[in-house]
Specification:
- The structure is a single chain.
- This protein has one helix at residues 86-92, and strands at residues 17-25, 35-36, 45-47, 50-54, 68-73, 76-81, 97-101, 103-112, 121-122, 135-139, 147-148, 155-158, 163-166, 177-185, 193-197, 207-216, 225-236, 252-258, 273-277.
- The protein is an all-beta fold and 280 residues long.
- The chain has two domains: 16-96 and 198-277, Roll (Pnp Oxidase, Chain A), CATH 2.30.110; 101-195.
- Strands 1, 2, 3, 6, 16, 17, 18 and 19 form an eight-stranded antiparallel sheet that branches. Strands 8-14-10-11 form a four-stranded antiparallel sheet, with no helix packed on it.
Length: 280
């Protein structure tokens, strides 16, 4: 075959990778692609994260063929997501716990001091009370100044039942009017938000896979796709920048890391990423 001056061929046009592709969670195949994670800024970057070990041989003037071994695989896929879905936001910080809630502020008169003696008074919010927001105030009737009570000194609170009890030796007087201020999840009115709170990373937090599916330019291939898949995935947290104007979109900069699954295998054959390239 004669030497050519460039690589242009009739077949080449079938094998271009075009466009930003679609990013999916829990991809199975092109007919069952899983959950589309939505719009992106494009320009995704994949890093196989390969670390090599080169045996340093006495007498060698440089690196030696056949003396290089792969020591580690730490694959990463970086994508800029635009859609603030619950799926995407839930992946921002590994270990996040979430619940559908309608956070509602509540002001509740609990009666006088003796009314909250054991067994106490169950707040309207019950077990849905956000304990971190609870404040108990007391004061004389008739508009006198109120004082904030001290948890576990003046009163106790049981989150499982949402119950407030006056303790012995409390500064809350028998005739003092007692008022509770707090926030709770009023699910009875319909959930308005998915609320995320920090938590520890659990096995269930790992996504089965994250898969980028790009189109090949082929007009004849039965599966004209380039598929890049990372398995057992967590996101590496990064700063979330909120734009200061009213027209620019916030970007969820996601760097997905793939992890070996010890229940499957820990050799190179089980490295947690794959490429699929469509064929004629």
């Amino acid at each position: 075959m004669a030497v050519v001056m460039n690589g242009i061929t009739l077949a080449a046009v079938e094998r271009y990778i075009r466009g930003p592709g679609g990013l999916y969670k829990d991809f199975t195949d092109v007919d069952t692609p899983g959950t589309l994670l939505g719009e992106t800024r494009g320009d995704a970057e994949f890093d196989p994260g390969i670390t090599f070990h080169d045996t340093d041989v006495a007498g060698a003037f440089g690196k030696m063929k056949a003396h290089r071994k792969i020591a580690r695989y730490e694959p990463k896929l970086t994508v800029a997501l635009l859609e603030a879905t619950t799926t995407n936001l839930g992946a921002v910080l590994p270990g996040f716990d979430s619940a559908d809630e309608t956070p509602t502020k509540q002001v509740e008169n609990l009666g006088v001091g003796t009314a909250i003696d054991s067994p106490g008074v169950a707040l309207t919010g019950g077990a849905d009370v956000d304990s971190s927001t609870l404040e108990i105030w007391y004061g004389t009737s008739g508009g006198g100044a109120s004082t904030k009570a001290v948890l576990n000194t003046d009163y106790s609170f049981t989150p499982a039942t949402g119950t407030v009890i006056r303790l012995g030796g409390s500064s809350i007087g028998d005739a003092d009017e007692v008022t509770a201020y707090y926030e709770y999840d009023s699910t009875g009115s319909g959930d308005a938000f998915t609320v995320f709170t920090p938590g520890q990373i659990a096995n269930a937090d790992y996504w089965t896979n994250v898969t980028l599916v790009c189109q090949l330019t082929s007009s004849t291939y039965s599966n004209p796709y380039f598929v890049l898949q990372l398995k057992n995935v967590l996101n590496t947290p990064s700063a979330l920048s909120i734009p200061g104007d009213g027209v620019t979109e916030a970007v969820l900069q996601m760097t997905f890391e793939a992890f070996f699954n010890p229940d499957t295998g820990t050799t190179i054959a089980y490295a947690p990423f794959e490429w699929w390239v469509g064929r004629a």
